[in-house]
Structures are given as C-alpha cells and as structure tokens.
Write a structure and sequence with these properties.
The chain is of the alpha/beta class and about 400 residues long. It has two domains: about 10-180, Flavin prenyltransferase-like (Rossmann fold, 3-Layer(aba) Sandwich); about 190-395, CoaB-like (Rossmann fold), CATH 3.40.50.10300. The protein has 13 helices and 19 strands. A hairpin with a 5-residue loop joins β9 and β10 (about 205). The two termini are about 30 Å apart. The site of cytidine-5'-triphosphate has 14 residues, from α11 and β16.
Length: about 400
Amino acid sequence: MADLAGKRIVVGVCGGIAAYKAVEVIRRLVDAGAHVIPIMTKGAEHFIGRTTLSALASEPVQTSLWDEASPIPHTKLGQGADLVLIAPATARLLGAYANGLSTDLMTNVLIATRAPVIVCPAMHTEMWEHPAIQQNIATLASRGVHIVEPEAGRLAGGDSGKGRLASPDAIIAAVHQVLGPKDLAGVKVVVSAGGTREPIDSVRVIANRSSGKQGYAVAAEAASRGADVTLISTVELAVPAGVRVVNVETAAQMQAAIDAVWATSDVMVMSAAVADFRPVSCATQKIKKDGGIPQIVLEATPDILAGLGASKRPDQVLVGFAAETSDLVANAQSKLERKNLDLIVANDVSQPGVGFAHDTNAVTFLRPSQALESVSLTDKRAVARALLDIVVQIRASQ
Ligand code: CTP
C-alpha cells in the first residue's frame, strides 16, 4: 500500500548493534512508496555495509559532509525532507543533537531541518537510564522531537534490559503517526478487541481464538489520525501510543465498559469476538473430576452490538465485524441490517492467513445501499486504514 507515496524521508543510521534493523525499516518505507535518503555515521559502517543501505534505499548512502559534489549537502538534505528518522540513535547522537553540536553529516541534517524528526534510541540499560541521556531525551521531546522509546529485551554482549531498539513495526507506526492524515482529529473512537472469556468455575473459562490484533490495529490507526481512542480489550498487547485501554474479561464486563462511553462517542468499532453463550452459573471453587462429569448449562449473552444499533444517534458511526466460514456476503449483509450498522467488516476465517490469531487479514466491507469493497490479504494495520477511510467518508456524509 503506497500510503507514504511522495514523502521524502531521510533515514539516519548510527553505529550500534541495532543498525541491522534499520535495513528492514528502510525496506518497508520504500515499499510504502516513500523516497528514502539514507545517511550513516562512520560508526554505523562497523555494523552494516554501505552497499546494503544503498541497494535498498532510493539513493546511495551518504556518510560524510564531504562526499558530495555540492558543497552544502547538510542543509540540502534537511531542507528537502518531509521527515528525518534516526534509527538507531546512539547516546552520542542524542547528546550532540540536544546541544546543537554539528559534528558530522547526521547532526548537520538534524540541526538544519525544519521537518519533523523521529529518534529511536538504542543503547545499554545503564546508558539509557543515565540522567544525562534522560535529560537529553526530555530536551528533545520538549522541542517537539518524536521519541520512539527503546524496548526491554536482549542487548549486545549477552546483557538484557531496556535499551533495545523499538521493533520495525513500532518505528513504521511512528512514521505513519507523524506523516499520516489527521482526518479523525478530536473524534471520540471506541474500539473493542479480543475474545471474551466466560467463567465455568474459578479456574476454567469458555473462550475463543480471537487474538485482539485487528482491534489493536484499528485503535493504533485511529490514534495516529488524531482520534481520542478508548480500547476496551480482553487481551493485553503493546498499548498503541495515545490509546486509553480498559481491560475486561466477560461479555457482561465488556457491555458495562461500552455502555459507560457509548453516549459520548462518535465512532464505535466492535471488533471483539463476544461469546454468544455463557454458563448460567460459575462454580466458586474448581470443579473436581471425582464429582463426575459436570453438566454445564449455558445461556445467551446480550448482543452488545445489536443494543448499540438500537440506540444509535444519527451522528454516530457504528461498525461491526462478521467472522464467517461460509456465505460471507449473505451472512454479513443480514448482520448489517439486523444490527442497524453503518458498516460491517466481513472476513472468511476459513481462508489461510485471514482473521483469528494472524497478523494478516482479508476483508469485505459492506454498507447499506453501497457497493461492496474488498481488501485482499494484507497486514491488519492496512485493513484498519481502509476501515477508517470508510468511517471518515460516512462521517462526511452524515
Ligand atoms: N457481537 C456482540 N455481542 C454478542 C455477539 C456478537 O456485540 N453477544 C458483535 C461482534 O463484536 C461483531 C458482530 O456482533 O461485531 C457479529 O458477531 P458474530 O459473532 O459474527 O455474529 P453473531 O451475531 O454472534 O451471529 P452468529 O454467531 O450466528 O454468526
């Protein structure tokens, strides 16, 4: 999906073991249509080859103020950029940037640019936690520099702790957040995610295979487009930047959490897989097997989405999901009408790579009296983008 088409992004790679991850980031930016101009510090050349970056990016890599014919490349690169992204950013680079020291091509570009800047620090935990580094990070953040915080995990030399470069996913999401459209600015969006768990006794539940990944992707995309996002979730994945999470477990808890925010929300995306049935009662102790095979009596859960559809105001947008294994369009169409939805996202979860637990999805969008729109197998963030494009269209027509 060429959603970064036409964007000029300077990607700066510093010397650190995480430099190899910059290769993946550059490839994904180019795949998304960006024009990527790579620069690297002398230190980075110890970790990855110039050829690797030059081959993947849109231009040959530059390392020095002096390797171009033009005498002023430091201002030229920064001036022409829509974004400068530094990944990984070392302690030295952060210190030089925070203090305005132009020591090499990369610091020159950073000081000369008026474009937004994202820095993705990576270093050992002791260095990351040092007051000097934290102060430099705070200084840069106060000037509007976007910081993609390092993650906890394995570091060079067998150490582990916070300091590992953020994942390519998190870095790409930050790029979208900075460069993407802000067409949901101030809009109150509620997203539900994950499968509910209905207790049988104090240790057992009736659950389903929903991973919550599609709901998290919708929440992340909505937040990056400026929405005020509440995510009501049964699963705990990495919380997307700017998203408020309410953790729930059962259908009843999910309904209570949604009821608390529904009246004041503009858009509701119901991507959770809500159990249709739950045990009538929950044993307070673990059911022991020497008591014989238990008979678990089930009752229907409330259809949360149908309830929202019945009380929906004309200025609210209500989006449902339909996970089907047969008759995709007919089943989804009937849910669209029965639950009074503005949009339903139908997926055939019997197909490989689609829906439950995958990082990818393939969906068909259905709207009242509108032609079907399909998105073939892609990552869940791209599906979220297409879904919210339609939500923006619906809001514009309300
Ligand atoms: N849904 C809900 N409350 C329920 C069941 C489903 O809010 N108790 C919502 C889901 O979050 C989804 C939509 O309804 O957005 C469709 O869910 P799905 O399970 O596909 O459909 P059902 O209405 O449960 O019908 P069926 O199980 O017969 O396919």
